[in-house]
Design a protein that fits this description.
By secondary structure, the chain is an alpha+beta fold. It has a domain of 33 residues. It comes from Achromobacter spanius. This is Gas vesicle protein.
């Protein structure tokens, strides 16, 4: 059991990068929409999320075809 527990600390013995990658992203004035494009919140808000959980993004603003 001692050997098993000792192995758990091995991750801390590995060399770490000089500049570690960020774990979180922060957005100001974020807007949230449902899958069909309906806004969830009526006003922009602050948002914080894990970079490992980001699976897509959009550059620009969503708008209906009638406004385009």
């Amino acid at each position: 059991m001692h050997a098993s527990l000792a192995e758990l600390g091995d991750v801390f013995r590995l060399p770490q990068p000089v500049d570690p990658l960020p774990n979180y992203i922060h957005l100001a004035d974020a807007l949230f929409f449902t899958a069909d494009g309906t806004p969830i919140a009526g006003q922009p808000t602050l948002w914080r999320g894990r970079t490992s959980a980001v699976d897509g993004f959009i550059l620009g603003r969503l708008q209906s075809d009638a406004l385009a």
